[in-house]
Amino acid sequence: MRIGHGYDAHRLVEGRRLVIGGVEIPWEKGLLGHSDADVLAHAVMDAVLGALALGDIGAQFPDSDPAYEGADSVALLGRVRAMAEQRGWKIGNVDATVVAQAPKLAPYIPQMRRRLADACGVPSEDVNVKATTEEHMGFTGSGKGVSAHAVCLLMRR
Question: What pLDDT, in 10s, does the model give residues 114-133?
Fold first, then answer.
């Protein structure tokens, strides 16, 4: 078995859609980034890549490559899963936390779990997503951005 940890953060800006965990959430701002800036999918990808000792998403999908401009991060997570499988590993489970002062994410969590589980090739019950605030502290608490942490377990196939 191997364990990986991932973290990502993006700034909230006007004029972008808000995508978290592969789910588009109606909101006045979205996350700034080269791809769709899905912080949750990025944290999960980094957790898997970390467990594989393959660096991070910037090494695998550089923001200097125009091929990834506006990319669907859940689709990229599927590619990371394929990297794991090619090396003889499968994703066992994922546990993740999104940190955002607003909007409220609880109504979207079941759909996030399904989208991430499908990309990881596991049942929804093997993907846990939590959401929390930082009580108005820091960049997430002041509404300037959103961050996410994730851990995953890889098992030999």
Answer: 999 999 999 999 999 999 99
